[in-house]
Design brief:
By secondary structure, this protein is of the alpha+beta class. It has three domains: 112 residues, no CATH class; 160 residues, Sandwich (Jelly Rolls); 71 residues, Phage tail protein beta-alpha-beta fold. 31% of the residues lie in helices and 30% in strands. A hairpin with a 7-residue loop joins strand 4 and strand 5. It starts with a helix and ends with a strand.
Length: 356
């Protein structure tokens, strides 16, 4: 195993910048090397506990990381075959792993911030696949952040302006302030609001950017054509279709709008028949909802929701759309539910799901 390559791939994964090819390579490494798998598990535990992006590295954090890794090893009740039975050798291996983790923590923070403008004066909120969060901005605006998302706002936010930059999906309950409009920047559009509840979805690997208005009023402007603006009414959604999705790490100007059709399409939102909730915002209540959703888009959502990689070998599945809602269901329960209408088989192992 190439240690440097493994470290790079784990950094890419934790920063949310890993490509599909890199994910496949990492999965292969973890499958064939038990030491690498334990290191990956240790990374997850450290990032979820005492270490966080941007935290200074001290002797205490080194000891904390080492303690966590030792605890992880004891909890598994397994003895890595590469370590042998010598206690000193095990300690040395885990000490090295702890050092690697700390290097990765700093590297992931650098990798995450270096692609963002003005990162030195900005606050950045990130979520990994399989996780969500919520926060209150300095002006009192409430934000729910979906999985695999980055939200950035200036440290001077609220003093003279209220602007945020979004990559991913977030639900906003904006505090009204006529003197300082709230502006959401994405790679495709700029959304300007005064006091509004809305959902914005702008994942770099998807073909569309969507703004769904629940109440209030918003103005949506196309980045590539500032003269093209639309005003949304409550329960309307504007969809921006692009020629292709920008891959992680690519600049926003790699996205261009289709010229052969209207760049902005306004549709009414759809409500779940049972609970009369808007499909686009049900994720805020931890409901996994699909509304006439193509199979490939649904699979991408499952990957974000459950932090897995899904490989679909049956291409015929992409011809159908699905309308279904899951609440508090495991991945197995969701896949078993989809089998009734999609008619497929699947196998899940080591974070990879294969569907055929």
């Amino acid at each position: 195993m190439d240690d440097n390559r493994l470290i790079y791939l784990l950094v890419q994964k934790k920063s949310g910048e890993i490509t599909l090819e890199e994910q496949l390579e990492l999965s292969e490494l973890l499958k064939n090397d038990y030491t690498a798998l334990l290191l990956s598990e240790g990374v997850d535990e450290v990032f979820e506990s005492s270490l966080s992006y941007g935290k200074s590295i001290t002797n205490n954090t080194v000891n904390d990381a080492l303690d966590l890794l030792h605890k992880k090893m004891e909890e598994t009740g397994r003895e890595p075959v590469h370590f042998g039975t010598n206690k000193y050798r095990r300690l040395k291996q885990w000490s090295m792993a702890a050092s690697v983790l700390l290097i990765m923590s700093a590297a992931a923070f650098y990798l995450m911030t270096r692609t963002q403008p003005h990162s030195q004066s900005s606050n950045i909120i990130t979520t990994q696949k399989g996780s969500k969060t919520n926060l209150v901005l300095p002006d009192g605006t409430k934000v729910w952040v979906n999985a695999d998302t980055k939200l950035m706002y200036d440290k001077e936010f609220g003093n003279n302006a209220r602007e945020v930059t979004l990559t991913g999906e977030a639900y906003f309950d904006v505090v009204k302030d006529k003197t300082r409009p709230f502006v959401i920047h994405t790679s495709a559009v700029q959304v300007k609001v005064l006091g509004t509840t809305l959902n914005v979805r702008s994942y770099p690997t998807e073909k569309t950017t969507e703004t769904t208005l629940i109440k209030g009023s918003v103005e949506v402007t196309l980045n590539t054509s500032p003269d093209k603006k639309v005003i949304l009414k409550p329960n309307e959604k504007v969809v921006i279709e692009n020629t292709g999705a920008a891959l992680p790490g690519q600049p926003a100007d790699t996205i261009s709008v289709r010229k052969q059709r209207s760049p902005m399409v306004i549709n009414p939102v759809h409500f779940d028949k049972k609970d009369r909730e808007v499909y686009e915002t049900m994720w805020v209540k931890n409901k996994l909802a699909f509304d006439e959703t193509p199979f490939d888009k649904m699979i991408a959502e499952l990957e974000r929701w459950y932090n897995v990689q899904i490989i679909v070998k049956n291409k015929a599945l992409s011809t159908s759309t699905y309308t279904v809602t899951f609440e508090n269901k495991s991945l197995d329960e969701v896949l078993e539910g989809l089998q009734f209408s999609a008619h497929f088989q699947y196998q899940a192992k080591d974070g990879i799901v294969t569907i055929w």
